[in-house]
Amino acid sequence: MSENPNPITIENSVLILIDHQPWVAFSVQSIDTTLLVNNVTGLATVARDLGVPTVLTTVGASGGPLTDPQFAQLREVFPDQEPIDRVSTNAWEDIKPAVEATGRKVLLMAGIWTEVCLAQTVLSAIKDGYTVYFVSDCAGGVTLEAHEDAKRRMVQAGANGINWIGLVTEWTPDYTTAERDAVYPGILAHDGMVALSVEYIRANLQVSASSG
């Protein structure tokens, strides 16, 4: 396949990860925090390996009596990239120059809390004419109700929801390409049942190739 027919492609999108920090995550109740960290790390790994521009943010990570750095797992994925730190719950004005510099109009956002920093940033980006998808299983709210309310609000404003595996496969729909090979490390390390399926398929492809 010469061209990706999906609305989200490697070439047209930017990944934005908002405030994946320990203190912010302490209050998350809508998703198990171990799963949240695993999901966002898997997504970040795939984005890095595919060369999708990724914008990282923190809120109040420095400048006060306490520090709240980005998840260590994300720092390992992007060791040389400093998150954009800010004092506003709405990240849009702080990240907008970095987004504009990519020249891309499809934004893939995940963050915590869903009902605060993520929702506010999504709504502002939509207002400025961007197509926005929120990655729901890489986000978390202080309650499940708050998370779901925020998702409905974002959809009503024109955003669309997606999960991280759905996003990865939308980037790489053709499983015979080098791009699909590039996503395997992230999937195998961070998605249990899908990882098992991938391992099974790859093993059988190798058997078929060797027997042929």
What's the quick description here?
With 212 residues, the protein is an alpha/beta fold. Helices cover 51% and strands 14% of the residues.
Instruction: State Rg.
Output: 17 Å
- Uncertain residue ranges: none
Structural class: alpha/beta
Residues in β-strands, percent:
5-15%
Q: What is the CATH architecture assignment? A: 3-Layer(aba) Sandwich
| Number of structural units classed as domains | 1
Determine the N-to-C terminus distance. 24 Å
Please bin the fraction of helical residues: 40-55%
Mean pLDDT: 88
What is the overall silhouette? Answer: globular
Describe the sheet with the most strands: 6 strands, parallel
CATH topology: Rossmann fold
Which sequence of SSEs, written as H and E, runs from N to C? EHHEHEHEHEHEHHH
What is the tally of helical segments? 9
Number of strands: 6
Strand order of the largest sheet: 3-2-1-4-5-6
CATH H-level superfamily title: Isochorismatase-like
